[in-house]
Amino acid sequence: MPKERTKALRLLKEMGYRTVTVGMDKGAVDAICREGITAHVAMGSFSLPKADLRERDLLARRLDGKPAKWFGSGCPNNPKIRQASLRLARCAASMEGVDAVILDGIRFASPGEGIEVFLSCFCSTCRRKAEELGYDMPTMESSLRDLLKSLKRLTPPLLRSVVGWNSPIDLLDPLLRYPGILEWFRFRADCICEHVADVRRAIRSANPRCEIGAYLFPPSLSHLVGQDYRRLAKLLDYVEPMIYRTGQGVACLNYEAARMAADMRERGRGLGQVEIQRFLFGLLGLGAEPETSISRLKEGISHTTVESEARRAMRTVEASKLVPILFLDDPMLEESVTGALKSGIKRISFFHFYEGAEKAMRIVDKAIRAHDALFR
């Protein structure tokens, strides 16, 4: 929140904003409630506890066994991390004035962390969890190792043959070649859904009226990090896809795609930057044209992806629960807002409100009014 909270909140209220989400800040929650606005609190789901625990023991493990920290988080299955997450959820739900707790980082590591970290977690806890849930961890591990090795054999002709896939059935070949990959995705999704269900129960036990939401990766990337929209929508009151087309960190479409492209180029042989982007966009279902280079892609992806990602979310989540998040400082804010509205969504959230955001908010207002006038 800006320093002058009251002034900022009154501006938001005047412009029709109904909810403000903050961290675990009781003073901010009180200020929001005084202005008659709904207060939500966001919390990290698998953040490493600050207690005197040996951090290394809590970290996720790569295929090579090395520990890896991602997004300030540890292994999503580690019991100490999960218990800390449940305590934090109960604490957030118990704060007077809080209407909902929103989970952040409720996932496994993403491609944006680099392929070695993305291909995790293979710690002893995850191995036990896989056995408990009926998954074949050795097969998952073997398939991922083979997939990683195959990137070193990737050449321009081979990549062009993959780009030429004409139907979803073409995916059967790689799935049969690497049978543990689909199982790995399912395992990650099961683990995330299990913890969200536990968090929901913890929140309801602390405050029966408190709702639960989650910041999710955009649909094109969600299955990669263990987020199954269909299943999570049954557990959540708010499904908040982070549709960031430009940004400098994980979850942002441009950043994630650029990191994936860079990893492929580094491991393949003679792969062109545009060719790699075209392959990735087709694989992820992103309706965007490749940039001239991967570095250009890292600066931002086409604003058309905002509408297409919002539409994909609409196919799996009922509109009453769906609240996509856009960047408020997006250089193409008007186009992004218009695209999101064209998908048919009813509400939009923005990250984040900052000092001097009035200009951006006027752009949002203009886009909404134009859309309403067109479809009135």
Please provide a written account of the structure.
The protein is an alpha/beta fold. The chain has a single domain, classed as Glycosidases (TIM Barrel), CATH 3.20.20.80. It is 51% helix and 10% strand. The chain contains 18 helices and nine strands. It has helices at 5-14, 26-34, 55-58, 79-94, 115-118, 124-133, 137-150, 156-163, 172-177, 180-206, 219-222, 229-235, 253-267, 273-284, 294-299, 304-314, 333-342, 358-374; strands spanning 19-22, 38-44, 60-61, 67-68, 98-104, 211-216, 238-241, 325-327, 349-351. Strands 1-2-5-6-7 form a five-stranded parallel sheet. Strand 8 (325-327), helix 17 (333-342) and strand 9 form a beta-alpha-beta unit. Helix 4 runs parallel beside helix 10 (180-206) and helix 16 packs parallel to helix 17.
Question: Keywords for this structure?
Answer:
376 residues, TIM Barrel, two-stranded antiparallel ribbon, globular, alpha/beta, five-stranded parallel beta sheet
